[in-house]
Design brief:
Blueprint lengths: L7 H7 L273 E2 L2 E2 L65 E6 L10 H16 L7 E3 L9 H4 L7 E3 L5 E3 L2 H5 L37 H4 L7 E3 L16 E3 L7 E4 L2
Parallel strand pairs: 3-5
Antiparallel strand pairs: 1-2, 3-9, 4-9, 5-6, 7-8
């Protein structure tokens, strides 16, 4: 290595050196600095800052000549580029030629740890006070073996460190730490004061016989437990920053804490407490979902087994409780989509193959008639005629909603097994669930439309109770008389309660009233 061992005055007189690529600024130029940090920065030189910029013969010869050490720079060592020391990895620099610009592990925390390389961490590791008998924070064994043991700085006070390694061994200033007072106090150990300390004492900060460690503190969850044992998985103590859990002998497969001191969690592949399975994946469509065996109504569609799964117990929505899509013919009424579902393929029963209920029409005649209707058969004929006028092809199936005292009433002569819908002539539902619904005393809508779809408010002849039986003898003499000598019972077309067929009061048979007509086929 070429050394430039000259003063600024000489350099100024010569105007620079041929071996250097950059001329020196004038001596009074503020460019030159000196921060006395034991590192020769690019803006320092031997004249202005001799404490930082130091020539050493041992670094100027042999393999070391190609290395720009921490206390060398471009002003007096040819191996140093002008960029070495700027903290950046520049072109033509390597970790070997300019180690300070390639920091190693631990650099930057302000402490020279036992394993830090001084060449790569010169600001933290330097021999500024080497030889004073104390391993300071800026020293380690690599930079000052005279003061530092290899373990100084590892946080454990070893027997040979009590005097020199203050960072590991806490000082003691009380009377109990005076060696010779027959009290083994803080800071004393069998090594430092055998006359006071005759047996190992865990917690004194010194590693003594039978102790793997002794950090001198009361923290049971660090690397050295309060029993002076090295922290390890299975000791029953959760090692902060290293373990998630530690239940000692209760660690292991299927437990809350596994053999690696990791807390049991869904997805770790181990079936832990509260889990019935754990396949170690995030696939919610296989046979293990959220660490529970896949099942219908768990809210996840099990691939290859289920077509749907809405996670509820509602059997009438679009996904049944068997995790099958709702469909006409499955025997379950799909709410809002189907009127019925009898689960068969019979299209002529009470529920069609399209899951629609059959419909039968009920209307009130537009014409009015006196009490002599020519008996029950005459009343049926009048309903048939009205149905023909409305265009029904099955007009003959329409019968009058009418009763007499001779035991003839709707519940005896109409289809009481019907389970379909009764609707007005415009399709408005009157009763959705057949005869039983029609005769329960409560209609969905009043029977107030005629065969011509005209809305009326009238009082039809009925003499019939809400359950379809006779209301008594108010029948205009079996509906054959139109005089004032007889009266007839009636209903109201504007009612939806029982009075739709059985209103309070009677009318003389000489008056005129319409009829209720009901499809019965």
């Amino acid at each position: 290595m070429m050394r430039v061992d000259v003063r600024l005055g000489l350099l100024l007189a010569l105007g620079g050196l041929s071996c250097l690529k950059i001329d020196f600024p004038p001596a009074d130029n503020p460019y030159w600095q000196c921060n006395e940090d034991h590192v020769c920065d690019a803006d320092e030189n031997q004249v202005v800052c001799p404490s930082d910029c130091v020539w050493r013969d041992e670094t100027g010869e042999g393999p070391a000549a190609a290395v720009c050490d921490a206390q060398e720079n471009w002003t007096f060592v040819q191996a140093c580029l002008g960029t070495c020391g700027n903290g950046q990895e520049d072109e033509d620099e390597t970790a070997e030629t300019c180690p300070r610009d390639f920091p190693g592990p631990g650099c930057g925390d302000g402490v020279c740890a036992p394993d830090e390389d001084p060449a790569h961490c010169p600001l933290e590791c330097h021999p500024g006070s080497c030889g004073d008998g104390t391993c300071e924070l800026h020293e380690n064994a690599a930079i000052c073996a005279e003061d530092c043991t290899p373990g100084c700085g590892d946080g454990v006070c070893q027997a040979d460190e009590e005097a020199a390694c203050a960072r590991d061994c806490l000082p003691c200033s009380s009377d109990s730490c005076v060696c010779g007072d027959m009290v083994c106090g803080t800071g004393e150990s069998m090594m430092s004061c055998p006359q006071d300390c005759t047996e190992p004492s865990c917690g004194n900060g010194a590693v003594e016989e039978g102790e793997p460690c002794d950090d001198g503190n009361d923290v049971d969850t660090d690397a050295c437990t309060n029993a002076c044992a090295m922290a390890s998985c299975g000791d029953g103590i959760v090692w902060t920053g290293e373990e998630q859990c530690d239940n000692g002998p209760d660690n292991g497969p299927g437990k809350a804490c596994n053999a690696m001191c990791e807390a049991s969690a869904c997805g770790d592949g181990d079936i832990g407490p509260g889990e019935t399975c754990d396949d170690g994946n995030a696939d919610d469509t296989d046979d293990c979902v959220a660490c529970q065996q896949a099942s219908c109504r768990d809210g996840f569609v099990w691939s290859g087994e289920e077509d749907c799964d809405d996670g509820n117990d509602i059997d009438t929505d679009d996904c049944t409780n068997a995790c099958e899509p709702a469909d006409c013919g499955d025997g379950i009424v799909w709410e809002g989509e189907e009127e019925c579902d009898d689960g068969n393929q019979v299209d002529t029963d009470g529920c069609s193959n399209s899951c629609l209920k059959p419909r039968r029409v009920i209307f009130v005649t537009s014409k009015k008639f006196e009490g002599d209707l020519m008996g029950m058969s005459g009343a049926d004929s009048k309903c048939e005629a009205a149905a023909e006028t409305a265009g029904f092809t099955n007009a003959a199936s329409f019968k009058a909603w009418l009763s007499d005292k001779e035991a003839t009433w709707p519940a005896k002569r109409l289809d009481t097994q019907y389970q379909g819908m009764y609707v007005l002539i415009d399709g408005t539902p009157v009763a959705e669930n057949g005869w039983a619904d029609l005769t329960d005393g409560e209609l969905l809508h009043a029977v107030d439309l005629t065969e011509t779809k005209m809305k009326v408010s009238s009082a039809p002849w009925t003499n019939t109770k809400a359950d379809g039986t006779s209301a008594g003898g108010s029948d205009c003499n079996a509906w054959t008389n139109s005089t004032l000598d007889f009266s007839g019972g009636f209903g109201k077309t504007n009612a939806t309660d029982a009075s739709w067929t059985e209103a309070v009061g009677m009318s003389f048979c000489s008056g005129s009233a319409p009829l209720y007509c009901i499809e019965d086929v």
